[in-house]
Amino acid sequence: PARPISFQLPGKARKCLREEIHRDTLVTGEYEISAPPGAAGPSANLKITDSAGHILYAKEDATKGKFAFTTEDYDMFEACFESKLPVGTGRMPDQLVILDMKHGVEAKNYEEIAKVEKLKPLEVELRRLEDLSESIVNDFAYMKKREEEMRDTNESTNTRVLYFSIFSMCCLIGLATWQVFYLRRFFKAKKLIE
């Protein structure tokens, strides 16, 4: 199982974590923000957005909580923690942020599925493995699709470069021919050649 990420969040600072996630994927997460001993308490905002800036989850003065959303498109998602310094205090000590974000097969609660469907432990493990293998197949299908798109882009670029090279060569040959004829006329006019 994956372990949560933890980091120190200094006063009046902002730290963001980004991850690319496939479309139609369940994303769940838990977070906990704690101030060091002797501090007044944690004070930070959490905002989760996609690359277009749409807010998927936001919490002001967050201390502990959970979130969940399903992605609509393959996109880059960003979780930002922003420390808020209370008015009238000096430098705020660093806050400890713990974030456990899961998506896809990791995000499914198989214990809950086992209770609802009355599955045995072996059946639950088989279901988890089935979902995991389906996820791997979907990842490979996505990679194959991206490879085809990139190959098409590469071929298109190569074709454009070829046409541009041919056009450049024609321009250079045309310019060289014009220069020869122009200089020949110029030298004949100056009577340097016959």
- What is the second-level CATH architecture of the largest domain? Sandwich
How many domains? The number is 2
Q: What's the CATH superfamily of the largest domain, by name?
A: GOLD domain
Determine the N-to-C terminus distance. Answer: 89 Å
Q: For this structure, what is the CATH class of the largest domain?
A: Mainly Beta
- Low-pLDDT stretches: none
**Cα-based radius of gyration, to the nearest Å:** 31 Å
Shape type: elongated
Secondary structure class reads: alpha+beta
Give the count of helical stretches.
Answer: 2
Task: Please state roughly what percent of the residues sit in beta strands, choosing from under 5%, 5-15%, 15-25%, 25-35%, 35-45% or over 45%.
Answer: 25-35%
Question: Helix and strand succession?
Answer: EEEEEEEEHH
How many strands, what sense, and barrel or not for the largest sheet?
A: 4 strands, antiparallel
Task: Report the helical percentage.
Answer: 25-40%
- Kindly report the CATH topology of the largest domain: Jelly Rolls
Q: What's the rounded overall pLDDT mean?
A: 88
Count the strands? Answer: 8
Major sheet strand order: 1-8-3-6
Transmembrane segments: 161-183
Domain GOLD: 14-168
InterPro entries: Emp24-like, GOLD_dom
Subcellular location: Endoplasmic reticulum membrane; Membrane
Explain this structure.
Residues 14-168 form the GOLD domain. This protein has 194 residues and is α+β, with helices and mostly antiparallel strands. It has 2 domains: 5-107, GOLD domain (Jelly Rolls, Sandwich); 110-194. The chain has helices at 110-117, 121-189, and strands at 5-9, 14-21, 26-34, 44-49, 55-62, 64-70, 75-83, 95-103. The chain has a 4-stranded antiparallel sheet, with no helix packed on it. It has a 4-stranded antiparallel sheet with strand order 2-7-4-5, with no helix packed on it. A hairpin with a 5-residue loop joins strand 4 (44-49) and strand 5. The termini are far apart.
